[in-house]
Amino acid sequence: MYENRIHNFSAGPAVLPLPVLKKAREEFLSLNGIGMSVLEISHRSREFEEILHKAEQNLRQLLSVNNDYAILFLQGGASLQFSMVPMNLHIPGKSVDLLQTGMWTQKAQKEIEKICPVRLAASTEKENFLRLPTKDEISLSKDAAFVYMCSNNTIFGTQWKWFPETGEIPLVADMSSDILSRKIDVQKFGLIFAGAQKNLGPAGVTVVIIRKDLAERADRNLPTMLQYRTHIKENSLYNTPPTFGIYMIALVTEWVQNLGGLEAIEKRNEEKAAILYREIDQNPLFYAPVKKEDRSLMNVVFRIKDNNEELEKKFVQEAEKAGLSGLKGHRSVGGLRASIYNACEKSSVEALVNFMQDFSRRYG
Fold it and tell me: Annotated catalytic sites, by residue?
């Protein structure tokens, strides 16, 4: 029945776990036998409140989130958070320290600057973001309102393996592309946000994990929907939330639990990435432009030698015909990219490696 499913390396919306898709299909017409789809039930119903509670509790358990933090399910994507974070967390007279590591922090900077000043605490822009700043290159202010970063860069293929110590200054992280892929210490952060469409579920819902006391920084004249305190008080039910997306997050987090939690997921992701990077490094037709210690486990960026764009185009076209989808690099940088998020199976990575070897024999 599933013979038409292909190997999906899309950067997002991305591949979802097959067991989750099967479960959603089984319940699509009648959720738990109630005679209605999850798409039809009221967000005020007992059935949906159970789904919401399950999604939140699963995330709390997997990420070890204590009760000092609220977990919110919002709309507007990560892009709205570029504005919502400074609206709520800025302090008049203070700037924001920003770690500039790619397009997503550049976009965030433009929105933050509409609210308050931004100070670059580090940047690797001069090197085309093909590496991350070292600890010695980061210069943090002692009185910043907060420190802003993106934990994984989908476009340039870099990922932070460590996080800066910011002391009493809240650390804010966009984790849209690597949340739930590895163990992290949530208590290091004041706020974490993530669009769901890579590791958590479908597009349309954004998860925000915020230390509750920080929500009280916001001016009460801020529009009600843009205040975190509104959604904390109403348990993400101030307005109609993205119900189907939250339902899918509940299923995806349950799938992660069944696999063995973040320890098992992290090991699985490391194994997949090692297989692919090993082929890139040893195959003379390909190379990875990213500094080795900063390579992402989620988004593997690679090129064909001499940046042969015509051959890269052929690679993408032939890969599509072979059932390997989504391997074209981001339009802003070109090249090739394989996004191997949590739900990407090892068998898909092995299929890609086999295709690369065959392609190299024919064109290398």
Answer: 104, 174, 198
Token look-up 């800025």 returns 90
Measuring CA to CA, how many Å separate 194 from each of 36, 80, 99, 168, 225?
Answer: 30, 11, 17, 23, 18
**Residue 136 exposure: Cα atoms within 13 Å on the Cβ side:** 0
CA–CA gap between residue 281 and residue 194 (Å, rounded): 31
Of 90, 107, 88, residue with least CA distance to 195: 107
Query: What would the pLDDT profile of 25-66 be if each residue is shown by its tens digit?
Result: 999 999 999 999 999 999 999 999 999 999 999 999 999 999
The set of residues, in sequence order, having a beta carbon less than 8 Å from that of 75 and lying 6+ positions away, is 204, 205, 206, 241, 242
Reduce the DSSP state of residue 73 to 3 states and report it. Answer: strand
Backbone angles phi, psi at 193, to 5 degrees: -135, 155
Has this prediction a pTM greater than 0.90? yes
**92-139 pLDDT, tens per residue?**
999 999 999 999 999 999 999 999 999 999 999 999 999 999 999 999
SS3 of residue 201 by DSSP: coil
**Which residue has 């039930």 as its token pair?**
41
253: amino acid identity, one letter: T
Number of helices and strands in the chain (H, E): 9, 14
Spell out, as residue ranges, where the chain has pLDDT lower than 70.
1-3
Q: Token digits for 98?
A: 């920003």
Burial label for 353, CB within 10 Å (0-12, 13-18, 19+), is: middle
69 by DSSP, 3-state: which? strand
